[in-house]
């Protein structure tokens, strides 16, 4: 490889690595699947290589399986809450994607 | 490095740190380090005082790895700056 001085920081639009794919979603709403059956949707403002993130207008959904004592069925319960601005630690993150609205 | 700098801008502001064990602690951010360990002053346990372990505790040190979320005051967050800094951080991590 020739020793060349390249332009210091190339903020190109070339998508090379997975992190570049996430970069495309900056300032857009994203869907984040996390450990412990949690999901968050929010506007992505920042992230790093660990997938630490800052999301605005975030809605967290926690899914729990409850066992009905009488019918012995397993019922899925979802709890949601909104957080105006949140930092999410990357070690909880499983995946990041554009939002998958059902309909 | 990005989030280390980001949290430094929030020193002195009130935040809520939600831990992986579901404990939520409200307090004033006193300091942060490169591992995103944080020290909070004048803490109070939010959610429920379901967790009475900390009744007499005023200040605490929280290891970064046990944090799940940090609830931030949106008025003190510059989203434009964050996005620009993110683009630079990703670019500088690639080379």
Description:
The complex is a heterodimer of chains A (103) and B (95). Chain A has 103 residues and is mainly beta. Helix content of chain A is 6%, strand content 50%. In chain A, a hairpin with a 5-residue loop joins β2 (38-47) and β3. Chain B has 95 residues and is an alpha+beta fold. Helices cover 24% and strands 33% of the residues of chain B. Chain B has 2 helices and 5 strands; from the N terminus they run αβββββα. Chain B has helices at residues 2-8, 79-94; strands at 14-19, 24-32, 38-45, 60-62, 67-71. In chain B, strands 4-3-2-1-5 form a 5-stranded antiparallel β-sheet. In chain B, a hairpin with a 4-residue loop joins β1 (14-19) and β2 (24-32). The A-B interface holds A 9-11, 16-17, 19-20, 23, 26-27, 45-49, 52, 54, 56, 83-89, 91-92 and B 1-3, 6, 20, 36, 64-65, 67-74, 77, 79, 82-83, 85-94. β4 of chain A pairs antiparallel with β5 (67-71) of chain B, so a sheet runs across the interface.
* Biggest chain-to-chain interface with counts: A-B, 27 and 30 residues
Q: Are there runs of chain A of 5+ residues with pLDDT below 50, and where?
A: none
Inertia-based shape of chain A: elongated
SS element count, helices of chain B: 2
Largest sheet of chain A: 5 strands, antiparallel
H/I helix tally of chain A: 1
> Helix and strand string of chain B, N-terminal first?
HEEEEEH
> What helical percentage do the residues of chain A reach?
under 10%
Largest sheet of chain B: 5 strands, antiparallel
**How many E-type strands of chain A?**
5
Taking all residues together, what is the mean pLDDT of chain A? 88
User: Which value, in Å, is the CA radius of gyration of chain B?
Assistant: 15 Å
* Mean of all residue-level pLDDT scores of chain B: 94
Question: What sequence of helices (H) and strands (E) makes up the elements of chain A?
Answer: HEEEEE
Helix content of chain B: 10-25%
The end-to-end distance of chain B, rounded to whole angstroms, is 16 Å
- The whole-angstrom Rg of chain A is 19 Å
Shape of chain B: elongated
Low-confidence runs of chain B: none
């Amino acid at each position: 490889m020739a020793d060349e001085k390249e332009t210091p920081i190339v903020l190109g639009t070339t998508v090379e690595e997975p992190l570049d794919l996430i970069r495309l979603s900056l300032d857009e709403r994203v869907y984040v699947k996390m450990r412990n059956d949690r999901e968050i949707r929010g506007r992505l403002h920042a992230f790093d290589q660990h997938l630490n993130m800052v999301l605005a207008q975030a809605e967290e959904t926690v899914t729990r399986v409850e066992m009905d004592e009488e019918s012995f069925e397993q019922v899925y319960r979802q709890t949601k809450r909104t957080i105006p601005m949140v930092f999410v630690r990357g070690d909880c993150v499983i995946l990041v994607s554009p939002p998958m609205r059902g309909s | 490095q990005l989030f280390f700098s980001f949290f430094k801008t929030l020193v002195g502001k009130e935040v809520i740190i939600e831990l992986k064990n579901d404990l939520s602690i409200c307090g004033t951010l006193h300091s942060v380090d490169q591992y995103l360990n944080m020290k909070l002053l004048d803490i109070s346990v939010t959610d429920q005082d379901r967790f009475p372990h900390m009744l007499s505790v005023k200040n605490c040190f929280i290891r970064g790895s046990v944090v799940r979320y940090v609830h931030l005051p949106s008025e003190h967050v510059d989203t434009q700056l964050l996005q620009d800094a993110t683009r630079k951080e990703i670019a500088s991590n690639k080379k």
